[in-house]
């Protein structure tokens, strides 16, 4: 009961702290707007996602907002909002989160505690679901123990069941004096069975924490059956980036360690993978991948060969991806990808890139052979579309015709607030107002006494005016 009282205090106090953080001056919005527009033959649906981050004058993230708008046969809207709070040492000490959709809404509060070395020591999370009138609690605790051999970190997670904290998950990690993970063991508890797993890491004697061997095993407490044991052996060749790895595992049938797979990876001086070979012994399955790149760092050709030995003999699959690029003033404008299967062209797709006048990426549009498109748009702090003019401004109203509700979308609203006026087809002014800047479609409910017919919506700023007509059919 004491823990529950503590949680209730957190629940009552933290919204005030979050509200203070939200209203603190000095916040700067950083927005990344993502739009995906899909047009498929015989069916069509639009999906718009908007992600927004805000930061305070210390560079700490204080807000996160996610909106997801889907229009198909009916409108769906999903929203998630998070507000962050920090202690006087700059540690993120609290998170308030709310998620809402067409069928449910959940709200959660998280409080984090830290030691004098700014290491996290505990997390308490309360989640409320008003739809089914339930509240759940989860608590995570961290302990740190240092010795001459390194540092041991224990993480335990518990959940509250009828005012009683019950152990759910434990991870025990040991780091050596070089800061390399040397051992990890986990124990999880479930209603039906308990499960444990462990890993032992043996490293090369260097500061890169490169692995020499990795042993892992796991078993279930339900019947004490050891059902997994594996050993991975690593070898580094060439410049030290190239890796050879072989994995052995013990099968239940033989009880002996047997070769499971072999893998080799090679990299160029820029750290890009240029070769990968993988062979699985039990299925006699091999994959070889070679990659080449252009001077700007983009892939030019990716060749993949796959050989699998079946009862009737080996089967081969050859996949080749080749790329063509178009640059303008040093910026990538178009990329075309061709995919061949067994030497025959199977598919191709084109990606078109657009930029702001300062060179930051504004959008990327993937155009598929099937006719649908996937478009991603970006917006940055203090950056507007310097190319927005009367000539390229647009306005979209949907659904059109409508039975009483319309959604408005415009590239003007991507950059700034705008005024609107609603007219009858004869030019009679019926209403006016203001739209706030947003990439999410803005909703307008038309009055019930509006008759069937054509209407005109005008959207305007100080220097740009656009108009579009739509049809109302009750």
What's the short story on this structure?
This protein has a domain at 396-472: Immunoglobulin-like. Helix content is 6%, strand content 63%. The chain is built from two helices and 31 strands.
Can you describe this structure?
This protein has 474 residues and is mainly beta. It has a 24-stranded antiparallel β-sheet, with helices on one face. It has a four-stranded antiparallel β-sheet with strand order 28-27-30-31, with no helix packed on it. The protein has two helices and 31 strands. Strand 7 and strand 8 (134-147) form a beta hairpin. It has a domain at 396-472: Macroglobulin (MG2) domain (Immunoglobulin-like, Sandwich).
CATH class term of the domain at 396-472: Mainly Beta
Within the CATH hierarchy, at the fold level, what is the topology of the domain at 396-472? Answer: Immunoglobulin-like
Report the biggest beta sheet as strand number plus sense, adding barrel if it closes: 24 strands, antiparallel
Q: What structural class do the secondary elements suggest?
A: mainly beta
Beta-strand fraction estimate: over 45%
The CATH level-2 architecture of the domain at 396-472 is identified as: Sandwich
- The overall average pLDDT, rounded, is 81
Radius of gyration: 29 Å
Number of helices: 2
The overall strand count is 31
How does the SSE layout of this entry go?
Blueprint: H1 2-23, E1 28-40, E2 43-55, E3 61-71, E4 75-86, E5 92-100, E6 105-114, E7 120-129, E8 134-147, E9 150-160, E10 165-175, E11 181-189, E12 194-203, E13 211-220, E14 225-237, E15 242-250, E16 257-267, E17 273-280, E18 285-293, E19 299-310, E20 313-328, E21 331-341, E22 344-355, E23 361-368, E24 373-377, E25 396-398, E26 405-409, H2 411-415, E27 418-424, E28 429-435, E29 442-445, E30 453-460, E31 465-472
Antiparallel strand pairs: 1-2, 2-3, 3-4, 4-5, 5-6, 6-7, 7-8, 8-9, 9-10, 10-11, 11-12, 12-13, 13-14, 14-15, 15-16, 16-17, 17-18, 18-19, 19-20, 20-21, 21-22, 22-23, 23-24, 25-26, 26-29, 27-28, 27-30, 30-31
């Amino acid at each position: 009961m004491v823990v529950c009282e503590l949680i209730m205090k957190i629940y009552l106090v933290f919204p005030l702290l979050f509200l203070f953080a939200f209203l603190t001056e000095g916040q700067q919005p950083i927005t990344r707007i993502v739009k995906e527009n899909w047009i498929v033959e015989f069916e069509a649906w639009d999906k718009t996602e908007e992600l927004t981050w805000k930061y305070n004058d210390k560079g700490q993230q204080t807000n996160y907002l996610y909106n997801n708008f889907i229009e198909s046969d009916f409108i769906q809207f999903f929203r998630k909002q998070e507000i962050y709070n920090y202690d006087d040492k700059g540690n993120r000490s609290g998170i308030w989160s709310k998620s809402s959709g067409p069928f449910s809404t959940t709200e959660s509060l998280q409080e984090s505690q830290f030691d004098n070395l700014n290491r996290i020591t505990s997390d308490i999370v309360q989640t409320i679901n008003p739809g089914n009138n339930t509240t759940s609690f989860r608590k995570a605790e961290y302990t740190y123990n240092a010795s001459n051999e390194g540092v041991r970190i224990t993480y335990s997670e518990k959940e509250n069941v009828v005012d009683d904290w019950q152990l759910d998950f434990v991870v025990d990690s040991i780091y050596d004096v070089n800061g390399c993970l040397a051992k990890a063991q986990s124990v999880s508890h479930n209603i039906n069975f308990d499960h444990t797993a462990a890993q032992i890491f043996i490293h090369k004697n260097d500061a890169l924490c490169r692995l020499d061997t990795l042993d892992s095993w796991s078993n279930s407490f339900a019947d004490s059956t050891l059902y997994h044991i594996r050993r991975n052996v690593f070898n580094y060749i060439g410049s030290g980036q190239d890796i050879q790895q072989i994995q052995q595992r013990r099968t239940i049938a033989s009880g002996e360690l047997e070769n499971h797979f072999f893998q080799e990876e090679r990299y160029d001086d820029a750290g890009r993978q240029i070769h990968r070979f993988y062979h699985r012994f039990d299925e006699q399955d091999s994959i070889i991948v070679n990659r080449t790149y252009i001077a700007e760092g983009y892939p030019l050709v990716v060749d993949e060969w796959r050989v699998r030995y079946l009862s009737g003999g080996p089967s081969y699959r050859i996949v080749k991806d080749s790329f063509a690029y178009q640059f303008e003033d040093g910026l990538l404008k178009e990329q075309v990808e061709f995919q061949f299967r067994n030497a025959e062209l199977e598919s191709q797709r084109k990606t078109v890139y657009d930029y702001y006048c300062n060179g930051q990426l504004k959008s990327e549009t993937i155009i598929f052979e099937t006719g649908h498109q996937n478009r991603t748009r970006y917006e940055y702090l203090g950056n507007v579309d310097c190319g927005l003019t009367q000539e390229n401004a647009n306005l979209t109203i949907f659904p059109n015709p409508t039975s009483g509700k319309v959604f408005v979308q415009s590239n003007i609203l991507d950059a700034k607030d705008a005024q609107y006026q609603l007219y009858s087809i004869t030019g009679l002014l019926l209403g006016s107002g203001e739209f706030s800047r947003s990439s999410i479609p803005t909703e307008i409910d038309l009055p019930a006494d509006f008759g069937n017919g054509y209407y005109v919506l005008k959207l305007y700023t100080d220097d740009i005016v656009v108009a579009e007509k739509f049809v109302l059919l009750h």
